[in-house]
Amino acid sequence: MAHWKAPDDRQALTAIRRKVFVEEQQVPEEEEMDAFDETSVHLLALSSDSGLIGCARIMPTGQIGRMAVLREFRGSGIGSLLMTAALTQAKGQNFETVFLHAQCHAEAFYTRFGFIACGDVFDEAGIAHVRMTLPASPMPLS
Fold first, then answer.
1. Least enclosed by CB within 10 Å: which of 13, 33, 51, 68?
2. How far apart are CA 126 and CA 19, in angstroms?
């Protein structure tokens, strides 16, 4: 876990998100770094030989977001590890609903984790997104 208020963590999170979202995807930096960073739980992916390579955050609303993996590490399973960690963190926080705003090209990735698209495609920071929710696990029978 990373802490936004810790300068080294904040610098690492900002660097990854700036590279992926601001530079690659042309998201305005003032939209990328927002007030929710202060109150969210942040995750960082670390490679033993390459340093910090990915991140994600879980907002107090149960929304998982700001999933980013540096380009040279995409396709290597880092995103799946981050999502698994984010879901574990969300489960530990007992959110009533876990959801995310998926970039449409990544919808299949999130579907693998059980997320279901709901609603229409919408624009967020100039990129097509769809809201996806994770159905609640069935209550165990007693």
1. 51
2. 17
Give this prediction's pTM: 0.89
pLDDT digits (tens, 9 = 90+) for 23-63: 999 999 999 999 999 999 999 999 888 889 999 999 999 99
Two structure tokens written together for 39: 């109150």
Domain ranges of the chain: 7-134
Residue 133: Cβ-neighbour burial (10 angstroms; 0-12, 13-18, 19+)? middle
Rounded to 5°, angle at Cα 51 from 50 and 52: 125
Length of the chain: 142
Alpha-carbon torsion 119, 128, 63, 134, what sign?
Answer: positive
Q: Are 76 and 115 in contact (CB under 8 A)?
A: no
> What is the CATH architecture of 7-134?
3-Layer(aba) Sandwich (3.40)
